[in-house]
Design goal:
Strand content of chain A: 15-25%
Largest sheet of chain A: 5 strands, mixed
CATH architecture of chain B: Sandwich
Shape of chain B: globular
Largest interface: A-B, 86 and 78 residues
Number of helices of chain B: 3
Number of strands of chain A: 12
Largest sheet of chain B: 5 strands, mixed
Order of helices and strands of chain B: HEEEEEEHHEEEE
Structural class of chain A: alpha+beta
CATH superfamily of chain B: Aromatic compound dioxygenase
Helix content of chain B: under 10%
Order of helices and strands of chain A: HEEEEEEEEEHEEEH
Oligomer: heterodimer
CATH topology of chain B: Protocatechuate 3,4-Dioxygenase, subunit A
Number of helices of chain A: 3
Distance between the termini of chain A: 61 Å
Distance between the termini of chain B: 19 Å
CATH class of chain B: Mainly Beta
Chain lengths: 247, 187
């Protein structure tokens, strides 16, 4: 039986009655694909050791500067609202995560991914792939020029739509800080209907995924701007370790 | 400061995360290359064809690599980091070197991260080399895991390779890890 949005909304409300802290619940039935794919055993707590206290190193050898501009990857100009998303990557103690890899991917302005599995009958844009990479600056800063992605339907339930988002993949100062998440746009009317966004049951934590419109990042006659600062979990390394890194 | 919550990689992660040679930390023809591979399965034992694994490891001498170059492999630099997506049968594979002990007497392991469609947030685990029972028996993590679940953290040796299966759910579920500063990540 195909579930309706009303069925999913009831499940979302039921799950919200047992808030699960600031991170998404692994066991979150409204997101149907999670049912057979979440561990049932609690995670095993350990102190990180050895390689876990380090992060892989990336650098300008890995990523060319123009990979941060998703609008210049083809002969023509992509269709849609040109926008910048910029911010800083910080660790849980407020220190910048410098020289680390940030990867993004997204749908085009019509809500279509350039991926074989995306069969949503919205147009592809021959001038937009939707993939970007950059290396953070010394102050943890990153900046992508792109076009605003559209919302799109998926098959979690009948008439399911994802709020517009950009996928972000982030590395920290140690292995335990690795995270992949999604950035959303302010005021999206689909937030309340989306079991992926709602899998984070703490409303304050969910809001951390929403970029803010920033007029200072908006460029005259060219592009709107959004700011999204990203705080990772705390590193398990001491500041001394990090200093040695730089030396 | 509250850490940014994770979100699923979704079904289209190949678009943003795949790149050439991502799962070849060394060329497969390297004289010391091993094939680290296995299957990712769900709570019914069915293959998970849309998962992506990352490994992070010391070199065979136990040194932590800090050279860049994982995204543009030159065939010579061992960066210690790689990424592999599962195929339609849930199978993934890496060509790599065996990790060494970062300190004498410590059990060598690969640090492993698992992402998938349907997985709301990433999972951490370890894949130990299987060879030295004394070293494994003395390992802090393995010692603290129930004996009947320890095997989920240990690779199986085969000619030229190491097998490491990941069971996301079920009776033989893989042991996944959390760390002191991540405890909030789990409901």
């Amino acid at each position: 039986m195909e579930l309706s949005q009303a069925d999913i909304n009831r499940e979302i409300e039921a799950a919200a009655r047992h808030p699960g802290g600031p991170q998404p619940k692994h066991d979150y039935p409204p997101y149907r694909s999670s049912v057979l794919r979440h561990p049932k055993q609690p995670p095993h707590l350990i102190d990180p050791e050895s390689i876990e206290l380090w992060a892989p190193a990336f650098g300008h050898r890995d990523v060319a500067d123009d990979e941060a501009d998703l609008t210049i990857q083809h002969a023509g100009t992509p269709i849609g609202e040109r926008m910048v998303v910029a911010g800083r990557v910080l660790d849980g103690d407020g220190r910048p995560v410098a020289g680390q890899l940030v990867e993004v991917w997204q749908a085009n302005a019509a809500g279509r991914y350039r991926h074989q599995r995306d069969q949503h009958p919205a147009p592809h844009d021959p001038n937009f792939t939707g993939v970007g990479r950059c290396i953070t600056g010394a102050d943890g800063s990153y900046r992508f020029q792109t076009i605003k992605p559209g919302p799109y339907p998926w098959r979690n339930h009948r008439n399911a739509w994802r709020p517009a988002h950009i996928h972000f993949s982030l590395f920290g100062l140690d292995f335990t800080q690795r995270v992949v998440t999604q950035m959303y746009f302010p005021g999206d009317p689909l937030f309340g209907y989306d079991p992926i966004y709602q899998s984070i049951t703490d409303p304050k934590a969910r809001e951390l995924l929403i970029a803010q419109y920033d007029h200072d990042l908006t460029t005259p006659e060219w592009s709107t701007g959004y700011r999204w600062d990203i705080v990772l979990t705390g590193t398990h390394r001491t500041p001394l370790d990090t200093d040695e890194d730089v030396a | 400061m509250t850490a940014v919550p994770g979100q699923t990689v979704g079904p289209f992660f190949h678009l943003g995360l795949e790149y050439p040679l991502m799962n070849e930390l060394v060329p497969p023809a390297h004289p010391r290359a091993v094939r680290l591979h296995g299957r990712v399965t769900d709570g019914l034992g069915a293959p998970v064809p849309d998962a992506v694994l990352e490994i992070w490891q010391p070199d065979p001498q136990g040194h932590v690599p800090q050279a860049p170059g994982s995204l543009r492999r030159d065939g010579w630099t061992f960066t210690g980091w790689g990424r592999a997506a599962t195929d339609p049968d849930g199978h993934y594979q890496f060509a790599t070197l065996e990790p060494g002990a970062t300190e004498p007497g410590r059990a060598p392991f690969f640090a492993v991260t698992v992402f998938a469609r349907g997985l709301t947030d990433r999972l951490f685990t370890r894949a130990y080399l299987p060879d030295d029972p004394d070293v494994l028996a003395a390992d802090t993590l393995l010692e603290s895991v129930a004996p009947d679940r320890r095997a989920t953290l240990i690779t199986t040796r085969e000619p030229g390779g190491l097998i490491f299966d990941v069971r996301l759910q079920g009776d033989d579920e893989t042991v996944f890890l959390t760390y002191p500063r991540l405890r909030d990540a789990w409901a």
